[in-house]
Amino acid sequence: MGRQPADHLGSAPPPAEDDTARLFFALWPDAATRAALDGMAQALREACGGRAMQAPHIHLTLVFLGNVATRRIPELCSLAAGIKAPRFEMAIDRVAFWPHNRIVWAGPGACPDELQRLVAVLEGALQSSGFRFDARPYVPHITLLRNARAAPPQAVAGIRWRIADFSLVQSLRRDNSTVYEVVQRWPLGVCRT
């Protein structure tokens, strides 16, 4: 009968060198904003067909990292804790359709300066720390429908979203579907008026 080393008793073994997690930084809506976005998705589904995002998974990606070694997650959390950015409000007043992947999405008609700066600061910190990330031009969007059959109507009732924090999120496969779990959240500073 072999014995485990004492430092591993009662805990999971340390992650293997190649263990990875699929990660991204995101804005995670509060309950009222999430309900409003879910209502928008349900209304658009009537017009466009497709499958609505599950309400608990509605988010706006800031920076997509992809697969990251799990041993580097504490480093990511430390990096994010050092981000200084103000709280802000954003109008979700635009809907659009990407025909190549049949996605209906919502976003701001004009990207707030605070959002652009938050993304730029995150990307700069990630680059300085040697993290790879999706460096395509940033298009702030919230996926509402997948497998849509038609483009949405252009007129939508806008939603005001007060952004008070940002999150590191892990994308997981469970029961043949994707689920998102918030790893950690960080508050933004006081809103400028």
UniProtKB/TrEMBL annotation:
EC number annotated for this UniProt entry: 3.1.4.58
Active-site residues, record numbering mapped to chain: 59, 141
Reported function: Hydrolyzes RNA 2',3'-cyclic phosphodiester to an RNA 2'-phosphomonoester.
Protein name: RNA 2',3'-cyclic phosphodiesterase
The UniProt record lists the keyword Nuclease: no
Family: Belongs to the 2H phosphoesterase superfamily. ThpR family.
NCBIfam families reported for this sequence: 2_5_ligase
Intervals of motif HXTX 1: 59-62
UniProt motif HXTX 2: location: 141-144
